[in-house]
């Protein structure tokens, strides 16, 4: 009976909290928050009509696409394959939350940060294949643009994440240890602590820039440039395929920002569970606000400009942070 209870707890972690249901709600609320914040920056109103202050507008949009609108695609667009790819990406992101110490039951193992990177990589693969799977030129251009940036931002995210986890959990490279019992708090010598902080700062800068590229926020919204390629990789999608693709994008943003916020300011192990969840959400919205303000203060880059920027700044900084983390 006990193994069955443990298995059910693990299923609850992946499907409810902090898994699929939590990430879906957090992602859609974050979309509303981003749209409101961007509207304020541009002197607009933003979502207004559905729910208090329009907070339910993203939920209404997803519901309409999933359950009201029909799936209409081009004659040669593999709609079912796209649906499977998107669902696989959402499932992979949800499964990766089982590695985070936010519930009483989670998976902890040495080097589990590599498993997290492996699982979340599926979302990027799904994003690029959504566009590449269409015969229309606009989604194809969007898919190619995303796949091209993927060759740079995925290594940056992986290297930066490993660097931060190496500093916070030097002996295990475990996300659970890095988030709940960070090694930086145990640094004995001032010089060692300074090196730890410097490594995390460099990794955080490179991670945040690559995260803007991975989640297609400005100035890296090149794969979905409406004025150039009519929405890019999503141009040929409608109905459930479009709804699930948008949901995949929002879940990916919420997961990465949530992890990033709690790596920068680890979860205090002494806090009770409800309070630690509240603190995690506060840190999440602080980091999300900073990222959005920075992102939407810039215009969109060209693809070659974006690649040069990603190689010159975040890739270089991530390699330096990785070298520092292992040198310490």
Structure in a nutshell:
By secondary structure, this protein is mainly α. The protein has helices at residues 2-15, 20-41, 57-67, 79-96, 112-132, 137-168, 175-180, 190-214, 226-229, 239-264, 273-295, 303-327.
Distance between the termini: 46 Å
Radius of gyration: 20 Å
Beta content comes to under 5%
Largest sheet: none
- The strand count comes to 0
Low-confidence stretches: none
What class do helices, strands and sheet pairing give?
A: mainly alpha
Helix and strand succession?
A: HHHHHHHHHHHH
Number of domains: 1
Task: Walk me through the structure.
With 328 residues, the chain is mainly α. The protein has one domain. It contains 12 helices and no strands. α2 runs parallel beside α11 and α8 packs antiparallel against α10. The chain is globular, with a radius of gyration of 20 Å. The termini are far apart.
Topology readout:
Blueprint: H1 2-15, H2 20-41, H3 57-67, H4 79-96, H5 112-132, H6 137-168, H7 175-180, H8 190-214, H9 226-229, H10 239-264, H11 273-295, H12 303-327
Helix pairs in contact: 2-10, 2-11, 3-10, 4-5, 4-10, 5-6, 5-10, 6-8, 6-12, 8-10, 8-12, 10-11
Task: Please name the defining characteristics of this protein.
mainly alpha, 69% helix
